[in-house]
Design goal:
Elements: E1 2-7, H1 11-26, E2 30-31, E3 38-43, H2 45-54, E4 63-68, H3 83-95, E5 100-113, E6 116-122, E7 125-130, E8 135-141, E9 144-157, H4 165-168, E10 180-188, E11 201-204, E12 208-213, E13 219-223, E14 226-230, E15 235-250, H5 256-265
Parallel strand pairs: 1-2, 1-3, 3-4, 4-15
Antiparallel strand pairs: 5-6, 5-15, 7-9, 7-13, 8-9, 8-12, 9-10, 10-11, 12-15, 13-14
Helix pairs in contact: 1-3
Bound molecules: nicotinamide-adenine-dinucleotide.
The site of nicotinamide-adenine-dinucleotide has 16 residues, from α2 and α4.
């Protein structure tokens, strides 16, 4: 079994990475940055976002697993003191071919510029925001005009990203077994002149959403932790990726709703 580690780079994460390499060596696992079977993210959810984007060309092959060195993360659910147990389970479950994989949907984002098209894949979300001015953008759903948005911006999230930025925008939490994307407004302007829906919307896999920025000035575009300031984007198409998903290796059960409970409620009712 080949593996690779992406860590946050702080002292704790670096120490854990070193420890993991030692454990892995003992089990005969091979360190491989070219085509790893498993990528271990050591740090927080942000580290998992980095790991995902670094290996996004290998989504068919590679599965991810996360260790958190701070608070419990959504993608990082193993603790540093469980490192040995994780290495043991990784070794046994992969050699005995009984590793459990869960697959979560992703959002595909395509920018159209005068030069052509650019594609991105989001694990959490895509956002479009104005810079130092109200963002005005036409929103089409399934190729029909839906509304003219005015406000701070628009967030389009995946189901697993619904617990991230989308949650802060009062979007719903979506179980990642549902192939859907969610559109949430960021501080829309609503009065007698300007009107937006004002509620988050959830679109199924075969629907699409196109955004047409109406300004000639730069807008801020983000895909997970990556930020771009651009003035050349004519339109943005968002849809659930038809053929790509992210794989997470589950060496023990930790259901999505338990994660939600632990991260946001945190009280033990047993
Ligand atoms: P960061 O370190 O500031 O992380 C922001 C927080 O988002 C962290 O607490 C992280 O644990 C949490 N987070 C990330 N993905 C999550 C998920 N799927 N479910 C629940 N919590 C999650 O920034 P970063 O490391 O660069 O991460 C970028 C992410 O930050 C973006 O994808 C976005 O979702 C999130 N973000 C959130 C807000 C907000 O909640 N108002 C604003 C900007 C960005």
């Amino acid at each position: 079994m080949n593996y690779f580690v992406v860590d946050r780079g702080d002292d704790i994460s670096l120490r854990l990475t070193e420890q993991f390499h030692q454990l892995a060596k003992g089990y005969g696992m091979v360190l491989d940055g070219t085509k790893p079977d498993i990528v271990l993210s050591i740090g927080g959810d942000g580290t998992m976002l980095h790991a995902f984007h670094r290996f996004r060309h290998l989504l068919e092959h590679t599965a991810f697993v996360g260790i958190h060195t701070g608070r419990l993360g959504f993608y990082a659910d193993w603790t540093p003191d469980e490192l040995e147990e994780l290495a043991q389970l990784m070794y046994h479950q992969t050699t005995e071919s009984r590793m459990q994989i869960v697959e979560y949907p992703l959002v595909e984002i395509t920018f159209t510029t005068a030069e052509g098209m650019e594609s991105y894949l989001a694990l959490n979300e895509f956002t479009l925001r104005g810079i130092a001015e109200t963002m005005v953008a036409q929103l089409n759903i399934n190729d029909e005009m839906f509304e003219m948005f005015r406000g701070d911006g628009i967030c389009i999230s995946t189901p697993s990203g619904s617990t991230a930025y989308n949650k802060a925008l009062n979007g719903a939490l979506i179980h990642p077994s549902l192939e859907a994307l969610q559109i949430a407004e960021i501080a829309s302007i609503n009065n007698r002149v300007f009107r937006t829906l004002g509620s988050p919307m959830i679109l199924p896999k075969h629907h699409s959403c196109d955004i047409y920025p109406q300004t000639k000035k730069k807008v801020l575009l983000s895909v997970d932790h990556l930020y771009l300031q651009r003035d050349d984007v004519l339109s943005i198409r968002c849809k659930v990726s038809p053929d790509q998903k992210v794989k997470f290796a589950r060496f023990r059960p930790f259901p999505f709703w338990s994660r939600v409970q632990k991260a946001f409620i945190g009280m033990d009712y047993k």
